[in-house]
Design brief:
It is a single chain. By secondary structure, the protein is an all-alpha fold. It has one domain. Helix content is about 80%, strand content about 0%. It is built from ten helices and no strands. The longest helix has 30 residues. The protein is globular, with a radius of gyration of 18 Å. The two termini are about 25 Å apart.
Length: about 240
């Protein structure tokens, strides 16, 4: 079995069995709408779409991607179908990359929906469309790797969901999605600086409104570094816990 055939086969299987299911597609549409409705109700009359636009895109990508990858891998481990993939004559890294790619595509879909709603309905302004596309991709990549990292530690599906929420909900408040990091207490900010989603949201904010808390180059470098680190530790744990 050649590597491209194995990669495309695993990716196609995941897309068909998990990501293209109607409930998951509807999740990507309803979730950002629900957050926008919540903002509208909270404000009483209306809200500044430019302030919440990056946060809604980020939360849609983060929650959708981490949930799907962490749950699907844990489910396949529980049903032992993942063990059959590990026995296939392909490199473990290629197998994991194929699993991650499906989650990244799902994350990009979850990011495109709030972008279209914000631009077409709320007439939101986008400063740099190319940077926005890159920001959605980087956030999808980081979210997928976070889901992979979580799935290594979980044995049951409910554990994967619990661990995911343990990481995700603090990120809503710590990573600048809706509350600027400059508005956080000084003693809490170091937590924001060690979370990769902080830099993905900052990159999104730069691409949408042209404002950012960190240099764009620093955002990209740190996101790439976090990606390699999460992938390395995930692969290390997979080979140590699942293959030995």
């Amino acid at each position: 079995m050649t590597s491209p055939v194995a990669f495309s086969g695993i990716l196609a299987k995941d897309m068909k069995n998990y990501y293209l299911k109607p409930p998951n597609i509807s999740w990507g549409i309803i979730f950002p709408l629900a957050w926008m409705l919540m903002m509208l109700i909270k404000s009483g009359a209306g809200f500044d779409i430019s302030e919440v636009f990056p946060g809604i895109v980020a939360i849609s990508v983060l929650f959708g991607t981490t949930s799907m990858l962490a749950v699907t891998i844990t489910f396949e481990r529980r049903s032992r179908s993942f063990e059959r993939l590990l026995l296939a004559p392909i490199r473990t890294e290629l197998l994991i990359l194929a699993k991650i790619t499906g989650a990244i595509l799902f994350g990009i879909f979850n990011g495109v929906i709030p972008v279209l709603i914000s631009v077409l309905y709320f007439r939101a302004y986008v400063a740099d469309w190319l940077s926005l596309a890159g920001g959605v991709f980087l956030l999808s990549l980081i979210s997928a790797l976070l889901g992979l990292f979580i799935s290594v530690s979980a044995k049951e599906v409910f554990e994967a969901q619990t661990y995911s929420n343990f990481f995700r909900f603090p990120m809503i408040f710590l990573c600048g999605l809706f509350i600027p990091i400059s508005g956080l207490p000084v003693y809490i900010r170091p937590l924001s600086y060690i979370l990769p989603v902080t830099y993905a949201v900052d990159f999104l904010r730069y691409s949408i409104s042209g404002t950012n808390a960190f240099p764009v180059t620093l955002d990209v470098i740190l996101l790439v570094a976090f990606s390699f680190t999460l992938f390395y530790f995930s692969m290390y744990n997979i080979k140590k816990k699942w293959i030995l």
